[in-house]
Every structure is written in C-alpha cells, then in structure tokens.
Design brief:
140 residues; alpha/beta; seven-stranded mixed sheet; 29% strand
Length: 140
C-alpha cells in the first residue's frame, strides 16, 4: 500500500489505514531518513491502539514501554545507537518480538538478521514540500 499525506491532521486516518492493513502483524519495522516522521507516526499509531502513557522517542533508552487502556504493553524501539546485533539480543529483542504485543521498531536495518519471519514494514519518506509518503510491505 502507498499513502501520502501533507498535514499532521491526517495522521489519525493514516494510522487507522495502516492498522487495518497490518491485521494481526505485531512487529512493525519503520524505515526512513532522519526527520522523515517515524516517531511522529508511531505516536499516532499508539493513540490509535489506545496507549495512555506519554509516547516519545526511545533514542537514549533504546526501548520504551507504553500501556494501553486495556493494560496491554506496546513496545517502541530505536535501534539507531546499537553498535551491533548482540546489543539487541542483550536487551531481549527476540522475546519482545515473540510476545504478541505491538513492537514498533525504528532503524530496523541495524538488526536485519534478527527480524522475525512475520512483520509489517513501513517506509517513510518526505519531499521538499513536507509531503510524506508511506509504503508498506507485509512479510509472513
């Protein structure tokens, strides 16, 4: 699927459409240049799945855990600062992926060998006017 949007006001609709397409896939891999809008889109997705905690980039902690209205955890990873895949294993990444809970992963290309067989890939790009393009791929 390919979606385009210009305004932050469109993010809730974009999120709904992505959630509909992803279906039961819980591991989401977000790719895109710095500033493409990965964290902003993840914030909108967290709202859409009912997260009640404050959503922010986990750049310094590598992982943030949020809670939905139903008490379900949602995990948000930022793999940008990982030096290697062993560090991802050290934080228990595979266990999170196997948990059945939403796992939103920024900079997944740094841990490509650890991707599960089933995932939802979201590629974001922005042009000079600020228009964002979202391309998705379902694997597994």
């Amino acid at each position: 699927m390919t979606l385009q949007f210009q305004s932050l006001n469109e993010l809730d609709e974009v999120s709904r459409r992505l959630l509909d397409e992803a279906g039961t896939h819980r591991v989401w891999l977000f790719e895109g240049e710095m500033g493409a809008g990965k964290t902003t889109l993840i914030k909108a997705l967290c709202r859409a799945v009912g997260v009640v905690s404050v959503v922010q980039s986990p750049t310094f902690g590598l992982i943030n855990e949020y809670t939905t209205q139903q008490g379900e955890p949602v995990y948000h990873f930022d793999c940008y600062r990982l030096r290697n895949e062993a560090e991802a294993l050290d934080i228990g990444l595979e266990e999170y992926f196997d948990s059945g809970n939403y796992c939103f992963v920024e900079w997944p290309e740094r841990i490509e060998a650890l991707w599960p067989t089933s995932y939802y890939q979201v590629r974001l790009s922005a042009d000079d006017t600020g228009k964002r393009t979202v391309n998705t791929v379902i694997s597994g």
